[in-house]
Design goal:
Elements: E1 2-13, E2 16-27, E3 30-35, H1 42-50, E4 57-62, E5 65-66, H2 72-78, E6 79-82, H3 94-99, H4 112-124, H5 140-153, E7 158-162, H6 170-187, E8 190-194, H7 198-204, E9 207-212, E10 215-220, H8 222-225, H9 228-235, E11 237-242, E12 249-255
Parallel strand pairs: 3-8, 3-9, 6-7, 7-8
Antiparallel strand pairs: 1-2, 1-4, 4-5, 9-10, 11-12
Helix pairs in contact: 4-5
């Protein structure tokens, strides 16, 4: 069952079209990877899906309801968003910052159950030892994991993440993706992740959506989408794609000829 559907979505900044007629769906238990070169529209698409930006055309359907008719508190109980930049959160501890993910459910007090959820999320993302450190004192990668933990305690059916692994070392990249992939399958979540690392996307995403110049170039399983032809057309590189491993593996060979003006 699709927890999230995007139908014929288009978005423009003034007279510059950024997204053109984007349609896809994400089922319960599925991780969808958004991939494509810089400037192709990945972040804009995630912000349109979250409701931060209003598309000129098309609609987003969340749990069978049109996002445009939902109150923000309802959206926050159904969909969590992890931005590309974690920010400094100078006045807050790690525990306090993650607890903010419970805001859609809180009234006047924090319950022991809320605190238990925060502690569990911190442990899951290897942050338990940092619970009472100021977020401003953390590295960029640690702050990013804090924001992912905050999204997890929101306990939504849909999670949107914009390049969540960009500041992480390789071990934590894999650990975060393992957590998200495992939660999607175990709890029936729909997870949408914008990624630059194609091999990480191929390993942990059930399907990939390839954006090129604001339009969909490819949409399907990693082994169907990750081809030398796609990599040449979309990324402008010559590459070999190894298909004899558990997931497709992209080996860049050399840059191709860039389009004039790029």
């Amino acid at each position: 069952m699709a927890l999230l559907s995007v139908d014929d979505l288009s978005f423009a900044y003034r007279d510059r079209t950024v997204l053109s007629r984007i349609s896809f769906s994400v089922d319960a238990g599925e991780v969808l990877g958004l991939v494509g070169p810089n400037g192709c529209g990945k972040t804009t698409l995630i912000k349109c899906v979250d409701g931060m930006l209003s598309p000129q055309e098309g609609k987003v359907v969340l749990g069978g309801r049109d996002l445009g008719g939902m109150h923000r508190r309802e959206v926050a109980r159904a969909m969590a968003y992890v931005p590309q930049s974690a920010g400094n959160q100078t006045a807050s501890t790690v525990f306090e910052t993650v607890l903010m993910g419970r805001r859609p459910y809180l009234n006047w007090t924090v319950s022991p159950g809320d605190e238990e959820r925060v502690a569990a999320a911190l442990d899951l993302l290897d942050l338990g030892g940092l619970a009472f450190r100021k977020v401003a004192e953390l590295s960029g990668g640690e702050r990013q994991r804090v924001m992912i933990a905050r999204a997890l305690v929101q306990e939504t059916g849909v999670i949107l993440l914009d390049e969540p692994t960009s500041n992480l070392d390789i071990r934590h990249q894999m650990a975060v993706m393992e957590v998200l992939h495992g939660l999607a399958e175990e709890k029936g979540l729909a997870v949408v992740i914008a990624l630059h690392d194609l091999n990480l996307a191929a390993t942990y995403c059930h399907r990939l959506l390839v954006l090129a110049e604001g339009s969909i170039y490819g949409y399907g399983a990693p082994e169907e989408v990750l081809t030398p032809e796609m990599l040449g057309s979309v990324y402008g590189i010559e590459a070999v794609v190894k298909q004899d491993l558990p997931a497709p593996y992209v080996v860049p060979v050399r840059p191709g000829r860039l389009k004039e003006g790029v």
